[in-house]
Amino acid sequence: MPEKGVGMITSGQLLIKKCFTEIWEKIPPSGTLQTWLPYHALAAYDTRPFQEAVAQAQVDIRAAYAPEAIEQINYLCVQFFPVFFDTKQASWVLPGRSHSLYDSVLALYRYEAHDWQKTQKALSLNPLELIEHVLAMLQIPAEDEARFFSQLLWSLPGWASFIRYHSLKDKQDHWGLELIALRCLWAWEYHLNPRELMGSSLDNVAVAALESLVNNEQQAETRIKERLSCEALLRESEPLEPMAHVVFCIDTRSGPIRAALEQSGPYTTDGMAGFWGLDLALCQTESAEQYDLCPALLQPTLKLETIPSQENFFQRWAGALKTLESHVKKQLLCLPLWVECFGVLCGFWLSLFSRGWVSQRGSQKATEKSGVLPSDAYLQIPLKDRVRYATHFLQNLSCSKMPPLLVVCGHGSTTLNNIFAAKLQCGACGNYRGIENSRLMVQILRCPQTQKELPWDLSQTAIIAAEHETVHDQIIFDAVSENISQSLLFKQLQHALDRARFEIYQRRLIGLKEREGASLYHWAQLRPEWGLAGHQALIIGPSWWGKNLSLEGRVFRHSYEPGADSEGAILQAIFQGPVNVAYLLNMQYLFPSLAPELFAAGNKMLHQLTMLSMVIQGNASDLLIGLPEQSVQYYQGQLYHQPSRLLIVVYAPAQRLINVLTSQPELAEKFANEWLLLRVYDPLKKCWLGLEDLSLAQERLCDASQALTSC
Amino acid sequence: MLFVFDSISGFFLSLLVIVGLPAWSYARKQLQATQPQSQNLLYQIGLTLLLLGLLACSNNPGLFLLCWAPLPFLMSRLIAAFPSKASAYSARLAFISLTTGTVLLGIGCLLQFELWQPWPLVVPKTNHAALCCLIAACLIQSGLFPAHRWLLNSLCAPTAVSALMHAGFINASGLLLLRIGPLLQTSPLSLLLLAVAGGVSIVIGLLTSAVQADQKRALACSTIAQMGCLFLYSALNLPSLLAAHLLAHAMYKSYAFLGMGLTLQEGLVSDNPYKKIMGIVSAVVFVGLGMMDSLIASHPIVLLCAALLGYQIGTAPTPPIFSILNIALFAGILSVWHTFFEILITEAPSSSVGPLVEWGAGAVLLMVPLFSQLPVRYQRPCYAFFLRLARPDREATCLKRGWV
């Protein structure tokens, strides 16, 4: 390869770099199938009003009308980029892979160069020089550069955001520039007409979609407000002594079982973010891969080591076979004979399990990647922190006196052969099952040293961890000791839960429009459950508030006792954490249902994995990011999740809300720009307030205080 | 009699049951959840399975041809189950390739056989041209190099269809090779052709699958290699190995396609302190078992592969107890499986070009792992070549996305 010219960066190049960086930072990082990031598709626009931002994004992102040459450029990209980023699938890795995407790809591309002279030129230049050269050759004036870059990136959105994700994760900032340099080179070689790329006009087509969005929201709001006002007025007297208190995640799927349990007897429940405030990360050894079991907004500080999960002999053998398969597959020469050995086993496995006749839940559990926490994991945490975590947890509970039985219940979904399985797990636990966090919280609460330091009396309370299995709506208790499991209280609770489960299971089967129950373990199961689809609102209020609404599974419900929070610190924390997480989850569902062509991840029936971490469709396609069609639609074109922005409903005095919003200007801006909708029920005045009322009140307050100071 | 139920048809029918029914059930389940109003895909899968079943039972070349003839059309419909520009292109490509294969099959049969004469065929004089036509038909049906394009462009089909294609449909050529096996042995030219096509496809299939980052594409490339194996076995006159391999590969592929999401789960990894010793022991076990089998013992390539496989199973990063169990399990499976098929399918007299083919193929095969050991300067063009070879056509891809 010819030597590259090493020179100073000229001022023209600096301008280009600056212009590009601005565009590049608007690309949302994609994450992989497992990770989820504190971003959404239009995160770069969320400082503007919602409607305006969508319109602006639409103008920026309109590659649908791109010319033919773009297809050729994309074709080359999707052929070369995967082999550069792949670390898991291929057994023959890219020879001479360096840190530079540009060099590695050009080294392969030169053997099939479309226009050898131009490729040779590219080989002799560095990315920035090449971009400058191509811009000059295509005669793109300086004022159009930004538009040209943004169109080149947004015509392959999946890869652009994947490379942005990786350049952030692997700390390789130059990959963005190298990506655009390669696309510029190919645009030049395949005679892309830049005016065709940039000049296409677009009518405001999203208007219709946005109108129906606003319509949906208004309908939902009216219904929710009606129900909630009724509940607030007709408040039933609380049961004096609850027999047991169950703490659930705020997740919409926990709603039905909460409501059903409360109706079935003297039980109370609470909802709070399912990681229970534990910013936990698990790893098998100090140096091994780390699994963050907390919202992506947080950096985990609590890093604990796990032990391999408890499995029976055959489950472990199945795990060993899995390892063996991936080991032998990389040895090319034994492949033909290996297929013969392993194939016989596969045939047996396929006939037995693929149709879901036999439950395979065990084998799913056998391969929990992160391992499980040992029963003395809490000892790895200093006492001071344990008390802090316990206090945070307990102060969110609505019960004034500790009940005899306290259940900490996370949630997780058991699905088989589903590449989107992580999206069905607990969002607050970083797309993992919530059981580990619950286990740790229970350990902390049970610890006598911690109990001594706490203002609450936990000595008479039996504390149990459990997991709400959302596919079957089953509550699975974790390691219950002999004397608890024999007690009448526990047996009654189990009975009540079984009844609750039966009731909501019936209700859900009607919703699914088919007899799903018998074949949840079928390998072809596209939709073991609806996940969060259909959610409309986040209700922050006392635990009795919103009970009837949550039976439908369409609202997140976070407990908040205005009476116990005179300083407003708890509300403050709720707005900082759960509201932000729910906002991001809402955006994850909003855009795939609003513009499936761009933000949904295609049809599950046609998917395949690439690099063992991303999804593509068909022979070759752009990387598909976000939720698949089947997560938001019944059938082609028939939506299940009606797009709507998240409605936040708060049961608190207006003044407290004003304080919260003034101290969190970023969130207040989101409310003002209508990315989130806010309605407040003031328990003192017994009336509903919108954001306008709050800001009016705030202005009046400001005026008053100014008047006071001037006096 | 039009139909025959012998060991070959029995084995192929059982293949269809093991592989076809899960694929059908998979497609049915997914269609229920996405488009319950249109069930065409199901009927087409059912019809394909039925035709393949009839193919297995047909007692003469005439009926065989009749059952084979509609398959290209059906397969192209299945590939384009979800209509788009890309899938229409892939379907057309498959239709043209497979129809060419059918025409070649027809020509071969007409030139060589009396159409309604039952198997096993006895012909007065071997017609080399006709046999070459038949081999070419098999080659196209299996997607071997140089007729691999239709297979590698067909991944726009739904997963269930891909499973059916790679595990059922393309094996029709294996069935044909079994049926005309005794005849092929009388023509050294066709044996040579089989061996060359098989050997080249094994090498290309293995290397193209090794460079792929896409999961289904890697599987499709490895199908080419496995089908190449069938051709090689046929050239070496090993019908029982051919049948054993065919069935095992079909089961493996349909598992790999249908259970695609299962690959995301991670296995049980741990350090094995005795892995060198175990590797050697297990290599010895595998070779020993091969030596005891009279059929395999005379084929050094198979023995070499067995030794390598044994070594790899022994050195896998699993706990020692499971390594031992795995060695026992797979050694057991392999010997039982081969013995079963040796009893099931009787051998013909040994091949005339055997040693030549065998040493040639062995030499080519040993080159496969060497590619990734070359210095980067020489390795890169090879890598680029194999990457390009398995690429889908541009027209068969859908690369436009945007805010419509």
What's the β-strand tally of chain B? 0
What's the oligomerization state? heterodimer
Biggest sheet overview of chain B: none
Whole-number mean pLDDT of chain B:
88
Mean pLDDT of chain A: 84
Low-confidence stretches of chain B: none
Q: Uncertain spans of chain A, ≥5 residues at pLDDT below 50? A: 1-5, 362-367
Q: Globular, elongated, flat, extended or rod-shaped: what is the shape of chain A?
A: globular
Structural class of chain A: alpha/beta
Biggest sheet architecture of chain A: 5 strands, mixed
- Would you list the SSEs of chain B in sequence order as H and E? HHHHHHHHHHHHHHHHHHH
Question: Number of DSSP helices of chain B?
Answer: 19
Q: How far is the N terminus from the C terminus of chain B? A: 60 Å
Descriptive notes:
The complex is a heterodimer of chains A (711) and B (404). With 711 residues, chain A is of the alpha/beta class. Chain A has 28 helices and 17 strands. In chain A, helix 3 crosses helix 9 and helix 6 (127-137) packs parallel to helix 9 (174-189). The longest helix of chain A has 28 residues, at 206-233. Chain A is globular, with a radius of gyration of 28 Å. The N and C termini of chain A lie far apart (79 Å). By secondary structure, chain B is mainly alpha-helical. In chain B, 71% of the residues lie in helices and 0% in strands. Chain B contains 19 helices and no strands. The longest helix of chain B is centred in the first third of the chain and has 28 residues, at 7-34. Chain B is globular, with a radius of gyration of 22 Å. The relative contact order of chain B is 0.11. The model of chain B has no long low-confidence stretch (mean pLDDT 88).
